[in-house]
Amino acid sequence: MKKIILIVLLVGIAGVVGVVRSHSRGSGPGFTLNYNPDKQSAAAVRDEIRKSYDLSAGAKVEVSGINGWVKIETSESKTAEVFIERTADSQEALNRRKIMVEGTPTGLTIRGEKGDSGFFSRVFGSRPTEHVTLKLPRQISLQVNGVNGSVSAADVEGPVEVNGINGKVDIAGASGSAEFHGINGNISVGLKQLDKGIDIHGINGNIELRLSEGVNADLETHGMNGSVISDLPNVVVDKKTYGSYSAQIGKGGNSISASGINGNIRLTRMISTNAV
């Protein structure tokens, strides 16, 4: 009798196990538990770079090779403050690139470079995103190139050079000279004064030149797929041939040269603001 009872219990237990297995194999959401360690580790990771340097007047600031936007604030301070945030979907992806920051009294360099990962990881893996925020002295020489994102800067009292940008460019105010090359996006720049010329070429986007009241210049454009429009008083735009325009701004003087523009150029008045 004891053997029969034991057999019955074993059969019952086997039946319960079979029911549980049949439910676990079913497609019902209430019985399926998925655990994917790769997805668990795919949460975004980040790191920060914070540094500060004292710069002398006219110091050269160079930002290059950034995969993300660049924002620049300026003031009368002599101290440059650097804040860089890097994010990626994994630590391995974050290691595929690195940011070098080097500073001396006469210059500040921020440069994105390849990291320590292998060839296939760099080529086929995702890249981290880099957001660069700078607080700089106003009296600097600014050069920004090779940025995969937008570039914005406050007033700069010195030459400005921006090239190789995949995004919009907005410079609140430039004094001296300015160059814009190879921009895939709209450009808006305020020209407070021109000690030298402005050179703009290879732009895939519209250009807005905001000129202060005392700026005198001669505009010449060639190879434009667009028009030159002026909102300035007493400025007449002359169309020479297709894609070529000229205009005298104020009394005329330093050259504003533009070529290879796939978009329009608008001349407008800069709205004066109080300096920070």
What does this entry look like structurally?
This protein has helices at 2-24, 37-40, 91-94, 119-124; strands at residues 45-54, 59-66, 70-75, 79-88, 97-104, 107-114, 129-137, 140-147, 151-153, 156-157, 160-165, 169-183, 187-203, 207-211, 217-224, 228-230, 237-239, 245-249, 254-261, 265-269. It has a 20-stranded mixed β-sheet that branches. The protein is built from 4 helices and 20 strands. With 276 residues, the protein is mostly beta strands. The chain has one domain (46-269): Pectate Lyase C-like.
Descriptive keywords:
single chain, 276 residues, mainly beta, Pectate Lyase C-like, 20-stranded mixed beta sheet, 4 helices, 20 strands, 13% helix, 53% strand, disordered N terminus
Which band does the percent of strand residues land in?
Answer: over 45%
- What is the name of the CATH topology? Pectate Lyase C-like
What class do helices, strands and sheet pairing give?
Answer: mainly beta
Shape: globular
